[in-house]
Amino acid sequence: MKRLVVYYSFSGNTRAMAKRIARALRADIAEIRTLKTYPDDLDVLLGLAKREIESGYLPQIVPLSVDASKYDVIILGTPVWWNSFTPAMKKFTSSISWKGKKVYPFSTNDKGAGHVQSDIKKS
Ligand SMILES: Cc1cc2nc3c(=O)[nH]c(=O)nc-3n(C[C@H](O)[C@H](O)[C@H](O)COP(=O)(O)O)c2cc1C
After folding, report:
1. Residue 74: closest CA among 93, 102, 100, 98
2. pLDDT for 26
């Protein structure tokens, strides 16, 4: 079984978790990065993220450092943004074929995971 941890992280929490999980599972790891960086100002970021999530906007992402199609198990890590998963992760989940793969999503958050799991499942 080839395992891959794929994560998006804006401020580092999800990256730290993803690294620990990858180490524990002896999995490969790859970071999703957006072509355009998000603003550092939290108020601006909150507003932008809300608009992107509500409209279903998918930002352009840098090609992954690995070929995700070669893995049987993919562990997906995302921060919770507005009770959902991040547009960058959504771009990734909608860009590969999931047939025959086992997927284990996890999220980091301040208050709760919201509907991340069901949103990822739908995507
Ligand atoms: C735009 C934005 C929206 C967020 N929305 C939520 C939320 O709805 N619920 C929550 O518990 N945390 C929310 N958070 C907090 C993050 O999920 C939390 O800090 C997360 O661990 C950040 O992960 P990162 O450091 O990998 O980017 C939000 C953070 C940002 C920047």
Report:
1. 102
2. 97
